[in-house]
Amino acid sequence: MQDLIYRRKGIPFFHQKTELEFQQDIYERYHEMVVRQSALHIADELWGRYPFQPIYDFAEKHYPRDKKNNILELGCGVGRWIASLAIQYPKSACWGIDYSYQMLKRANEYWVEGKEISIDLTDKGLEQQSKKGEHLLNLKFGLAKIENLPFGDNSQHLIMNSFLIDRLENPKVGLNEMYRVLRPAGKLIMISPLNFKKSEHWKLYYPPRQLSNIIKEIGFNIIEWKEEIVINEPMDGHGNLIRWNCIGMVVEK
Q1: Cut 0.85: pTM above it
Q2: Could you give the CA distance from residue 147 to residue 188 in angstroms, rounded to a whole number?
Q3: CB of 251 closer than 8 Å to CB of 221
Q4: 17-37: per-residue pLDDT in tens?
Q5: What is the rounded distance in angstroms from the CA atom of residue 224 to the CA atom of residue 108?
Q6: Could you give the angle at the alpha carbon of 167 between the alpha carbons of 216 and 1, nearest 5°?
Q7: Residues 200, 204: Cα–Cα separation, whole Å
Q8: What are the structural domains, with CATH classification, of the chain?
Q9: Residues 223-238: pLDDT tens digits?
Q10: Which of 47, 174, 199, 224 is most buried (CB neighbours < 10 A)?
Q11: Numbers of helices and strands, H then E, in the chain
């Protein structure tokens, strides 16, 4: 792992994020992003279900059989997915990496420090919630760019990410980094709506067969490719939602 640059609130920074980068990053906006993501991924009671359960349903059959692994989630947000693996594999070393300090701070407070958090979306017609956190000793969170991961070659047994690949500055560089840190025969699980933000990314990675060709060129072997994984993301207490039409892929090094 690379040398640590500095810390804030117990979060290691493997990328020295500038003040300008903080200002431009919408995921650093507390109420707009952090509170909303906390509601979506921690407070199931608000919705009567976990809205992103289809991700788990797709991924779980590909989890390792061994109990001791290095497990890495990229773009972990407030940390629910990697925390669920840390609970399932208590002998494993689990890391959640994200580019947003505010997301990582919330994830660390809830899943590692065990703090009680308050989720207030009364402006969306929802009741305020308080949630008591967990103390997961095998879980750590850190800030890094996916295109420059702070892990050694061939170091991870399992890498996961969701709603990430279409948000990267350079998806191919990010995929190459995932390949580098994944162990031989290790698995990479990705779920994405392929909702690219740049026109050049649509040209390079869409339709999905173009993305699959790049994945193969990097050296991955595609184990499973599933289209039309539908995730209905709730918006408010009236039942308005966003429908994400995702692709799930499991590849092996």
Answers
A1: yes
A2: 15
A3: yes
A4: 999 999 999 999 988 999 999
A5: 32
A6: 75
A7: 6
A8: 6-252 (3.40.50.150)
A9: 999 999 999 999 999 9
A10: 174
A11: 8, 11
